[in-house]
Design brief:
Layout (H helix, E strand, L loop, with lengths): L5 E5 L5 E2 L15 E5 L36 H7 L8 E6 L5 H14 L4 E5 L4 H10 L7 E5 L3 H11 L3 E5 L16 H18 L2 E7 L11 H5 L2 E6 L6 E9 L7 E7 L2 E4 L3 H6 L9 E8 L2 E13 L7 E4 L3 H15 L6 E7 L11 H13 L7 E3 L2 E2 L5 E2 L4 H10 L4 E5 L10 E5 L2 H7 L18
Parallel strand pairs: 4-8, 4-9, 5-6, 5-7, 7-8, 15-16, 17-20, 20-21
Antiparallel strand pairs: 1-2, 1-3, 9-10, 10-11, 11-12, 13-14, 14-16, 18-19
The protein binds thymidine-5'-diphosphate (TYD) and magnesium ion (MG).
Length: 465
């Protein structure tokens, strides 16, 4: 007699094993293994039936209708590489409350306004709640349809009847297939529902957008397979306490993944931020020590971000090293380079560093600006207001080139900056812009107008009692 075999699968990474374990051998997560009943394999029967599909020369494959159709929201279209592709499946991930439902409601109402039929299946909120929000956002469009439903078969039936061009499912974790024994949100449910939605999207040529929750550390909740079955994975990020929201493509089958979309959460929903330069620098106190502007690069998009450092005498036995919006590992490295290669004493000092405006600047190109902000804080001397700094700091105290310096400096020039401290090998700057080349961090500190003097500057090392 054929027996159904059970397999055990990790809810986080999708790794499969023959038995239940407390910890996943694949990703090391605890308590994520769940049982799955496998259907017995079909018995092999004689000669294989002719396949229903047909192989054909690549140039003969139909490509019409696969051009992206603009959504009508500039920042979203930028990230999507032009718009939504018919039959494509997009997964929008983000923390709860970041604005996923708001973004999609605005997106489908913009499309509905231009005659695209859109169906929103919401499993998280009631139809009344969504209607109220839509009214507030001015999104009550006749072509925008709504169904509060979590049963996948019902959602697909509604989609079949209405035949919308775009289907939004908010969220994939709330929909379930009653034929599967597992609970909604479980690995088996999420995976199976996603597969069925993808199949239906391809069959009907319907663009489908799924909302997905992310875990605390930013990974998409549910099995990794979700990322593999969809065409596009978008990630919506931002600090809950800041209005700024960043939209990126983590995976994109129809275009580049390097574009960044910027939004601001306002009372009237999400507003695109086509020129973020001024937004980040608007409240800057250029004359204060400890502030340096870095032309950073997000995908292909240069962003000028103010970095701040405060080096303060610490009352603690273990002084603090705080990196908000910056990489704490790189801060530790920069601190060590400043101590060993520059002679700045940081023992006994708390170091607070911050990327202003709720952005995350984790690229090595910000190293030099972080280092200069720290030196500026220690010496109490502000950097010139029209100066930016960009470069990677090496462990030997040398400055290293970063990608696309030309673009970064052009953006700095556009926003009124006139000078930049850069690695010696940096390319020629735009006209009217001065580059202060430095091959080491010590050079860079001098070129930025900061004087460390002969004696090590900073706080005296703690003397053991
Ligand atoms: P929401 O889209 O519900 O987030 P998600 O679907 O990612 O969980 O957005 C929730 C937050 O956005 C909520 O805290 C309120 C805020 N918000 C505004 O500030 N302005 C608005 O116009 C709307 C609709 C929401
Ligand atoms: Mg939501």
């Amino acid at each position: 007699m054929a027996r159904t075999r059970s397999t055990y699968r990790c809810a986080e990474c999708g790794a499969e094993g023959p038995q239940w374990t407390g910890r996943c051998a694949g990703c090391g997560a605890w308590n994520t293994i769940v049982e799955e009943r496998a259907v017995p394999a079909r018995a092999a029967a004689g000669a294989p039936a002719p396949p229903p599909s047909r192989a054909m020369p690549i140039a003969e494959v139909e490509s019409e209708g696969w051009a992206p159709r603009p959504v009508g929201i500039g920042e979203l279209d930028r990230v999507l590489g032009g718009g939504l592709v018919a039959g494509s499946v997009t997964l929008l991930g983000g923390e709860p409350g970041i604005g996923k439902s708001t973004l999609l409601l605005q997106a489908i109402s913009a499309m509905a306004r231009t005659g695209t039929t859109c169906l929103l299946a919401c499993g998280e909120e009631s139809a009344q709640q969504v209607r109220m929000r839509a009214a507030r956002l001015g999104a009550l469009e006749p072509n925008l349809w709504l169904v509060a439903e979590t049963d996948l078969s019902a959602i697909l039936a509604h989609a079949g009847n209405l035949a919308p061009d775009v289907l939004v499912v908010d969220s994939i974790q709330t929909v379930f297939d009653p034929e599967l024994a597992s609970a909604p949100g479980s690995v088996a449910q999420v995976r199976e529902c996603a597969h069925r939605l993808v199949r239906a999207a391809k069959d009907a040529g319907r663009a489908t957008i799924l909302v997905g929750h992310v875990t605390k550390d930013g990974a998409l909740a549910g099995p990794r397979v979700l990322e593999h079955v969809v065409d596009t994975v978008l990630s919506f990020e931002g600090e809950r306490h800041h209005a700024l929201r960043l939209l990126r493509a983590v995976k994109h089958r129809f275009g580049p993944t390097s574009e960044l979309g910027l939004f601001e959460m306002t009372d009237g929903g999400l507003a695109g931020v086509p020129d973020p330069g001024r937004l980040f620098l608007s409240d800057r106190q250029a004359s204060a020590p400890g502030s340096v502007v870095v032309p950073t690069l997000e995908g292909h998009r240069p962003l000028l971000v103010e970095l701040q450092a405060l080096v303060a005498k610490s009352p603690l036995a273990m002084p603090r090293r705080s990196a908000q919006g910056l990489d704490s590992g790189r801060l530790a490295m920069i601190s060590a380079v400043l101590e060993e290669r520059v002679g700045l004493t940081l023992a006994g000092a708390d170091v607070y560093t911050l990327a202003v405006g709720g952005v995350k600047v984790v690229e090595p190109g910000a190293d030099l600006a972080v280092a200069l902000a720290m030196v500026s804080s220690v010496t109490g001397v502000a950097l010139p207001a029209d100066l930016v700094a960009c470069g990677e700091v090496g462990l030997c105290g040398e400055l290293r080139q970063v990608s696309q310096m030309g673009r970064r400096l052009a953006e700095a020039a556009r926003l009124g900056f006139r000078r930049a401290v850069v690695p010696a090998s940096a390319p020629e700057p735009p006209a009217g812009f001065e580059v202060l080349r430095a091959s080491t961090l010590v050079d860079a500190i001098a070129r930025a107008g900061l004087v460390l003097g002969k004696k090590p500057v900073g706080f005296p090392r703690a003397v053991p009692a």
